[in-house]
Amino acid sequence: MSPHNCEECNNFVYDDEDECYVCEMDLDEDDMVKFLTGNYPDCPYYQSNNEYEVVKHQM
């Protein structure tokens, strides 16, 4: 599984209509299969919502 948690990603948002958290990024069919089977080494859409981590990279 990816070293990044979806729960810590800016693309992981609450959908009021479905009443659950979803990823805003549209994965294509191949990427979705990799993700669901755990063969996704690193999500290319991951964006940290940790402000301290973002600032650390800027220094």
Quick description:
It contains 2 helices and 2 strands, in the order ββαα. The chain has 59 residues and is of the alpha+beta class. The longest helix is centred in the middle third of the chain and has 9 residues, at 29-37.
Tell me the overall shape.
flat
* Spatial arrangement of strands, main beta sheet: 1-2
Termini separation comes to 29 Å
Structural class, from helix and strand content?
alpha+beta
Hey, roughly how much beta strand do the residues contain? 5-15%
The ordered string of helix (H) and strand (E) elements is: EEHH
Largest pleated sheet: 2 strands, antiparallel
Percent range of helical residues: 25-40%
Number of strands: 2
- The count of helical stretches stands at 2
Radius of gyration: 13 Å
Structure description:
This protein has a two-stranded antiparallel ribbon. By secondary structure, it is an alpha+beta fold. 29% of the residues lie in helices and 14% in strands. The mean pLDDT is 79.
Labels describing this entry:
alpha+beta, 2 strands, 14% strand, flat, 59 residues
Write the layout of secondary structure elements.
Layout lengths: L11 E4 L4 E4 L5 H9 L13 H8 L1
Antiparallel strand pairs: 1-2
